Each structure stands twice: as structure tokens, then as C-alpha cells.
Amino acid sequence: MKRGISSTIDVLFLALVITIAFSLLLQAVLSGGSNERRDYAARFAQSTLLSFQQTPARELGGFSYSLDLPIERPSERSLDWKTVTQLIAEDIQLNPKLLSDEESAWLVTNREFDQKLTDFLHNALDKFVGDRFGYRFIVQMPKIELSKGTWVYFRKTLGNFDEDSKLVCSECITLNLLLPLGRMAELLSSPYTAAELLENNELSSPLPQSIERTVAVTVTLELWSE
Fold first, then answer.
1. Which of 181, 217, 211, 33 has the alpha carbon at shortest distance from 98?
2. CB pairs under 8 A, 24+ apart, for 155-161?
3. Among 41, 63, 84, 85, which lies 20 to 30 A Cα-Cα from 221?
4. Helices 84-94 & 34-54 angle (0-180, nearest 10)
5. Low-confidence ranges of the chain (pLDDT < 70)
6. Could you name the domain of life of the organism this protein comes from (predicted)?
7. What pLDDT shows up at residue 157?
């Protein structure tokens, strides 16, 4: 127990030291040229994305949501131990978007998770970026074909910057995500999902439920001048 508390204190202390160091560096950079500011912003964005890969949700206020189950008292699921990028991966698996014949609709299995994650990411970005920069955060998975004329994809965009501000830098990381295509196809062929979403447009040949594919998900952090 003492070791766990000590580890948490070490993480928080390290985060504080990094924040102070970046704040001091920012003051020096602001008095320099645009190239120095751009280099600083790029390093800062890279550091933030790295933190998202390593920092558990419990260090950022915690994360939990209610399971969508047909019971009187829905069960609360805590994901405090997952990192920010792991939460993003779960959102993609739970709430992808369906595209068919130029129409699109959410293939939502847990809307509460998606909304809570959006709020969580806003709070995390405000905590990491603060008032140093404006930001735009983009999560994007390319279109994956489920059947002829039917694709699944994902895109989430969050922003907090002025329209008059200028883009300083754009940094990204790639997440390799195992996507359960068979499970998604099964959901689409259900009369309670595909029929409601896309006016009875069912898959012509649903994939076996066991089919999975590794896809590359791009997570981008843009920093904008204040």
C-alpha cells in the first residue's frame, strides 16, 4: 500500500517538475523568434501525446460509465487504470460510425461512454495544455469495408482555440487497434440497429463474428497561438 502511494506521489511530482520546466522554457521562447516557438510547441505537443499513452485515468480525475444493460440498476464500470489512449481505443470499438450509400450514422452501443470521454479529454487537454496554447485534438480511423457499399469509420474532434489564432504545430501518434469487424457486422444485421440507422439497409453478406483486423488510428494534437 505504501509502495503504491509512493509511486503515485512520484508520478505527480514528476508531472509538476515537467510543467514548471515547460513554463520556464515557454517564457524564454516567447521572447525569441517564431522558429524557436514552433520547435517548443512541437516538443510540448509530443510530450502531451506521450503522457496520454502513459498516464492512467485516475491521475486525471478518474473515468467510469454505466453499462447499457436491460436491468433496473445499471452497473457502473470503472476504467481508472486505463491510459487516455486506451480509453480512446475503447470508444472506437464501442461507438464507430457507419457509412452506406453516402449516408452516415453512429453505430452507438454506449452513448454515455462517448460523451463522458469527450468531457474527460477536454479536461485532460485543458490540464496539460492550459493557457499556453489553443488546441485541436483529432482522433481518426480510416474507412474499413464491412460489405459492398458499407463501411465503418471513426472521427472525433475537440477544439479550444480562437478563430483568429494561427496553427503553430501539428504532431501525431499512431495507435494499432484490433477492430472486431465480425461483431460490428452482426450489429448491423440486427433489425434493432441497421434498420433504425440506415432505413433497413442490411449487410449483403455479414462477416463471421470472429473476424478481426488491426487498423491504424491517428491521434493528432494541433497547437494554436493564443
1. 181
2. 155/97, 156/88, 156/91, 156/118, 158/118, 158/121, 158/122, 158/125, 159/134, 159/135, 160/122, 160/125, 160/126, 160/134, 160/135, 160/136, 161/133, 161/134, 161/135, 161/136, 161/224, 161/226
3. 63
4. 70
5. 1-33, 68-74, 101-109, 183-211
6. Archaea
7. 96
pLDDT score, position 87: 96
pLDDT value at residue 135:
96
Count of alpha carbons within 13 Å of 145, Cβ hemisphere only?
A: 6
pLDDT in tens, 150-165: 788 899 999 999 888 9
- Cα angle: 212, vertex 216, 222; to 5 degrees: 150
Amino acid of residue 205: S
For helices 84-94 and 111-129, angle between their N-to-C axes, nearest 10 degrees? 150
What pLDDT shows up at residue 10?
57
Compute the distance between CA of residue 135 and CA of residue 225 in angstroms, rounded to an integer. Answer: 9
